[in-house]
Amino acid sequence: MVLQVQTSTYEAKTQEIAKQLLAATQENRSFFSSLRDQMRWDDKLLAWAMSNPGLRVQLFRFIDTLPALHSKSEIASHLQEYLGDESVELPTALKGMLNFANPDSMPGQVAATTVGTAVETLAHKYISGENIKQVIKTVERLRKEKMAFTIDLLGEAVITEAEAQSYLERYLELMQQLVEASKNWAAIPVIDEADGEVIPKVQVSVKLTAFYSQFDPLDAKGSEEQVSDRIRILLRRAKELGAAVHFDMEQYAYKDITLSILKKLLLEEEFRQRTDIGMTIQAYLRDSEQDTKDVISWLKERGYPLTIRLVKGAYWDQETIKAAQKHWPQPVYNDKAATDANFETITQLLLENHQYVYSAIGSHNVRSHSRAIAIAESLNVPRRRFELQVLYGMGDKVAKALVDKGYRVRVYCPYGELLPGMAYLIRRLLENTANSSFLRQNLENRPIEELLAPPIVKQENSLTPNVETRLIASLQTPHSHFLGTADTDYAVEEVRKQAAKAFQSVRQQLGKTYLPLINGEYVNPPEFVDSLNPSNFSEVVGKVGLISVEQAEQAMQAAKAAFPGWRKTPAKQRADILRKAGDLMEERRAELSAWIVLEVGKPVKEADGEVSEAIDFCQYYADEIERLDKGVNYDLAGETNRYIYHPRGIVVVISPWNFPLAIACGMTVAALVSGNCTLLKPAETSSVIAAKLTEILVDAGFPKGVFQYVPGKGSQVGAYLVNHPDTHVIAFTGSQEVGCRIYAEAAILKPGQKHMKRVIAEMGGKNAIIVDESADLDQAVVGVVQSAFGYSGQKCSAASRVIVLEPIYEAFVQRLVEATKSLNIGEAELPSTQVGPVIDANARDRIREYIEKGKAEAQLALELPAPEQGYFIGPVIFSEVSPNAVISQEEIFGPVLAVIRVKDFQEALAVANGTNYALTGGLYSRTPSHIQQAQTEFEVGNLYINRNITGAIVGRQPFGGFKLSGVGSKAGGPDYLLQFLEPRAVTENIQRQGFAPIEGAD
How many degrees, rounded to 5, is the angle at CA 19 between CA 18 and CA 22? Predict the structure, then answer.
């Protein structure tokens, strides 16, 4: 169904103004014919990108890489790699230019120079200068054209506290120099004053997140404190200088906290009366109309107006993909017309409240500007309370036409070096070349009626899949309909409150006793052990009962007795019990996260991700057993052939402490849903969480004897169960030493044993990330820090080596050290914490020994101090590490990172593959041939390209390695359940006396 946006009283006036503006901006010749007449390569590149989607993608990827390329040969080879891709249909001129045999050849150098210059020219179209001197020149030209300006400093990927401080200092310097220059500027009444009020000549636009490197909605209070201190300095200096400050809006995750911080700050006595400050609303967000109403209500309370800049929004692709990947509701409108319609609604809302708000309408769409003018004129909005804005280089003709009509126009001018400016440039290029772009449609001389028509909003319904469903569909494999569960979105304030309540509730239960579960009964064990909070080892999380060997034997006999009935239980029934367990975990999500945080010291967000993984295992393996239960049919005429699966028997699960819920759950429910009886022996340090999992599995309906919770000492109970003749499968995650011992012991045939035991073992890694010279260093540094120091390096998948190519080694290490210095180390429960404790005193002492070895064989680049009251170790980085050093070869399982220097990519791969492990690995690169080579030659079970290497998702990134990292199929993948099943083939001859039914015969 299509709904026409209601034609309002403003429509006739909108059309009249828009036609006048359009006439002033349109050229006579068609867009493409005018381009053909030009010989400028920057214009040609844009024209080709518009007419060829494949070229557009590859060209923009090449442009993204360009600043990292330091020689013409590198530029030439990357040009060939990107634009020589099979998906790209090249225009003749470009094909001819790329037809060189060698990047070092003269034609290669010419191609590099031509395209490099063209991209630089393009960048200068949209970036107002590379330094303050150039910017001053630009704004002086704009003022001559009677246009006001606002300056935005590019390079806002602030990942270190040094960069956050520098960002503030650069803005203070920028304001100082602009105000100094402005003393020589003649007053221009149309932009410098209105309604008898002086308007500041100088305005800067800033991004809130750039004032604090660890800005995070989860830590709303900490982020607010850090950011507000720097904003106050900026606003005080702006007042002294007489400059205006505008706050931009960024990604959706930061929207609520940004508005909250600004509202609070601008009600402070010192700033309450300031009217030279602004904030931004993005019309592509579904909740932007409500946000606008809330801001207007707040401004009424404040009593002094501020500027609201209304824009459509610049991160549509990013927001859409992130929401689809996270299974969160789409924050943006999927249809451009819906954004346009919302933009008009909010424009009207702002202008109708002009006594409380100064409106700044930012667009390049003639209709959007005309609509604003029509409303403003109809309501007699005073000139001070209304202005129009365009981006530098994007709406030049529209801006000139608006100025000619006497309106105040402000140009948003980004400035900075080409390198940090490249992300901004690509956003502008995407906008300029999109099919739905007004600028493009205008240049193509579309009919005026079409260009100026009111936006038509398509009602989203099930018959026409929207972008969200198409994107989610594109994330699925051809064989899978599994979507996975959504992590908690801590950007939502209500969710943060629920998490805080869960911690209060769990804290009231600390110190309770947890008994083993044998044959459906909680039994008294001979021994108890305290499970401690590693953030504060004086706090007992729970007292856990450890079973004796005799009790282990009772559990084994109960499993044997329960097995015949459980194996006959239909797969669908087993799967439904498992789905119920997943639902119960979702209901208890915040509580389970809190237990993980307190018992094993995992920071809040990572604990929540672990609960998602446990739920995913339940849902995914339930789907999988139903798929496998159908078997395979290989029938022939006169003969049926069935390939079917049966459970193996009794499974012993030995789970680790580092993923105390997800891995324990994954191994256990895989065994159960496959029809096996299962004994769960968790690590001693995480047995309380295993007890919580036990409660859920029992409540879900697993019968007595089918699932049993048997905490005990690994050396006694663990060894007894591994060696028991009735054990069929051992599923283990832990150290290489213990894994190899289990493997050896399981191979020995015991008296009375009538089967070979199956061992599934995941035994850790010495995981490496390669960073080559074409990598995006912002992305690489953040990814390496997350991979190495997330959960204090205690994930099997954590990065403990980073292998960096020589040309960027020094720059990378410097930023890595600064980014790591900026991390918050503290109790896992605190929302500000990124690095919590290690698991216990043994782990702490062992890691310290490795740090001492590292000091003897490499250079110490960073060792951060750590709190005393828990088992803390601050992140440690070693540089100039030999590939064969102890800290390069042995698994440390702590926050210790070795940075290895290599000459070229071939050596990088050799070093990466030069250990006994093959679990996870990563590559940061924008060189297609390196990415291709890594996919075939990097010896790891899970390879991650241009992202961090931890956090594998069930059904999307099945997890597991080879070499000495483990044996068995990948968890969360299509082969995993097969390890718990015996395949059987059943053939029946269905002929009787030469007669057999033949399908389709009469």
Answer: 85
